[in-house]
Amino acid sequence: MAAISTSFASSPADELANTTPAFSPLYQQIKGLILQSLQSGEWKPGEAIPSEMDLAARYRVSQGTVRKAIDELASGHLVVRRQGKGTFVATHAEQNIQFRFLKLVPDSGTPGSEGPAQREIIDCRRARASADIARILGLRSGDSVLQARRVLSFAGTPTILEDIWLPAAPFKGLTAERLANYHGPMYALFETEFNVRMVRAEEKIRAEPATDGRELLLKVAHGTPLLSVERIAYTYQDLPMELRRGYYRTDTHHYRNTLN
Amino acid sequence: MAAISTSFASSPADELANTTPAFSPLYQQIKGLILQSLQSGEWKPGEAIPSEMDLAARYRVSQGTVRKAIDELASGHLVVRRQGKGTFVATHAEQNIQFRFLKLVPDSGTPGSEGPAQREIIDCRRARASADIARILGLRSGDSVLQARRVLSFAGTPTILEDIWLPAAPFKGLTAERLANYHGPMYALFETEFNVRMVRAEEKIRAEPATDGRELLLKVAHGTPLLSVERIAYTYQDLPMELRRGYYRTDTHHYRNTLN
DNA sequence: CAGTGGTCTAGACCACTGG
DNA sequence: CAGTGGTCTAGACCACTGC
């Protein structure tokens, strides 16, 4: 039996032309229902979700349909399957997916072979969103935002300088001390403390000279070419939740990307 | 009935430790057989492969098993499914996947909105592989390679300078004239003329100052920061088949990447 | 051993394409 | 209309995990 009696649902394309309603397969609907439970925190990062058989009974569909729904969630790294154990809500605290969002790797050795990054918070304060920050984060100009600056060092060498903007509302209670005292991936802190999980991100990369004091923090000569990386990170609902402007030294590291 | 009577096959990990032989599911074996037919040219880029039912009969497995094999090939962009029409061998000549390997996009507008890139071959000659080129391409030092240099311009502005190295053997007969007279994606030329299909690539990205005459070809000031993009492209068998060192201007364009 | 995810099958039906 | 890929089901069995 279908979880939703009609298997038709309107699509975004309807706004552009009067097309016939898009067909929405059952497994997509199930995927949506599971997604809702993930968002609501019914199953928390690191925990197991119900077994495929249980979910099939819950939604009154076959195991195969649940399976296909979970397949898509797994391919988007929202859940992780472990044969014989169960399916688990993905978390940024996992050791093996630490470097999913940090593409800068050492020229020799494997990602993380230099040991954990040293994180130093340079600044963290509450501010008003400028017009372009507001536009990117889906806020209004002047809305309250949290702004932080930090330096990441590898083997004692400052390598990454990042300016980070967060909408103040979802991160109520986040302080400079909390950031400075937390040793681990920032996104792991976000999901445990604020129930904000970063799911996807877009990066725009440029080559820019080191200026405006950034050369001092990264200890390079003024004008040294740096990799400029602007990242917008999105949550479950595909809402922009973080803007990050990073400057990477690429004398001993490089940005690694796979095309396929 | 199984296409291969035993469903056990040795895995690469066997070389590292004496583990039990890895289980190789039927659909993986079918995937391998289809891959073989793709490599051998039984089905050429742009053509349709047999229907799922036909392949199921050919390999004596169920349609579902063939389906799962094709699913994986489709997710790797080796084939493209079109409902109601069939499954087709992917090709770089497709308009919609032109930009799968070129991640540099204009700051405003959509990829390709500036019209097609103007391609100018600056140089193309036969040479001997240096030690590091040979290592990267899996050749021996001194083996014959083709070396080309070209400039891509958008809206009349030189934006990309690329040095390209190819192993001479698989590209026998490729001349500067052939390259210069071909207007279209280089990888499309490779697959139609030399049966070499680029399937996957790795890129290492750095910020570097414009030097060594590159500033002249890209018409920027000496020392201007450029995006340095080293690409190694791989064919079906995961053999490195091309080394490309690109220098991108990022004053009007940026390298776009999606993390998920 | 029971419980989980992973594979495979056979069959039914649906949505899309083109003649 | 026939042929294609896409969805859904029910059931069987396999591989892996942990008790």
Give a brief description:
The structure is a homodimer of 260-residue chains. Chain A has 260 residues and is an alpha+beta fold.
Describe the structure.
The structure is a homodimer of 260-residue chains. Chain A has 260 residues and is α+β, with helices and mostly antiparallel strands. Chain A has two domains: 6-89, Arc Repressor Mutant, subunit A; 99-255, Chorismate lyase. In chain A, 23% of the residues lie in helices and 32% in strands. Chain A is built from seven helices and eleven strands. In chain A, the strands form three sheets. A six-stranded antiparallel beta sheet of chain A has the order 5-6-7-10-9-8. A three-stranded antiparallel beta sheet of chain A has the order 1-3-2. In chain A, strands 4-11 form a two-stranded antiparallel ribbon. In chain A, strand 2 and strand 3 (86-89) form a beta hairpin. Chain A is globular, with a radius of gyration of 21 Å. Residues 1-19 of chain A have low confidence and may be disordered. At the A-B interface, strand 8, strand 9 and strand 11 of A face strand 8, strand 9 and strand 11 of B. Strand 8 (200-209) of chain A pairs antiparallel with strand 11 (253-259) of chain B. The structure holds a DNA duplex (19 and 19 nucleotides).
